[in-house]
């Protein structure tokens, strides 16, 4: 949970809404003053009133997850107003399908190797649409990097990386 003292600096929500941040502020634990963009995006997409209602209805131990979900969807909607996080989900589903096909081909290659059937080539038979091992490893690293780290580091969205050859906002 983010720590924000209402006495030192108002939380990002109260600062954005230009109101006094009171000690019982429901936004303070989730929208620290160091992350003004987080509340700005959530407010732009969902509205402060709706977020307040939602946080009041959710059990206190579930609020952090609710805020992270709202922030993720809000950022996705800001980047891609039509599809939101669906484009990231679709990108990951396509990557899983591509990697499953590659794994199936690799298993078939191993079976041929194990049965000493060397009449069929082993190298280059399991790459989908001319994809090479380097780009496969890059895609695997990208999916790890985009992970679900809500506390910094990698990007939430695979299409933010200039070197990434797959996916894209709105390419559903």
From TrEMBL:
Keywords (A to Z) from UniProt: Coiled coil
GO MF, any single term: DNA-binding transcription activator activity
GO BP, one annotated term: regulation of DNA-templated transcription
Entry-linked PROSITE patterns: LOB
GO cellular component: nucleus
All copies of domain LOB, residue ranges: 9-110
Coiled-coil segments: 89-116
Listed Pfam families: LOB (PF03195)
Family stated for the protein in its record: Belongs to the LOB domain-containing protein family.
Protein name: LOB domain-containing protein
Organism, scientific name: Solanum lycopersicum (Tomato)
Primary gene name: LOC101253500
């Amino acid at each position: 949970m983010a720590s924000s003292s209402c006495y030192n600096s108002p939380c990002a929500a109260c600062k954005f809404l230009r109101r006094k941040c009171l000690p019982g502020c429901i936004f303070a634990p989730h929208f620290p003053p160091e992350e003004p963009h987080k509340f700005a995006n959530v407010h732009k997409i969902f509205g402060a009133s709706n977020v307040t209602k939602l946080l009041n209805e959710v059990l206190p131990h579930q609020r952090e997850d609710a805020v992270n979900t709202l922030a993720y969807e809000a950022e996705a909607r800001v980047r891609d107003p039509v599809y939101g996080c669906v484009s990231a989900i679709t990108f990951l589903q396509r990557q899983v399908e591509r990697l499953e096909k590659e794994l199936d081909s690799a298993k078939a290659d191993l079976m041929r190797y194990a049965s000493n059937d060397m009449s069929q080539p082993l190298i280059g038979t399991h790459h989908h649409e001319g994809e090479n091992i380097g780009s496969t490893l890059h895609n695997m690293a990208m999916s790890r990097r985009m992970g679900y780290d809500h506390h910094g580091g990698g990007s939430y969205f695979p299409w933010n990386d200039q070197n990434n050859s797959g996916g894209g906002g709105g390419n559903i």
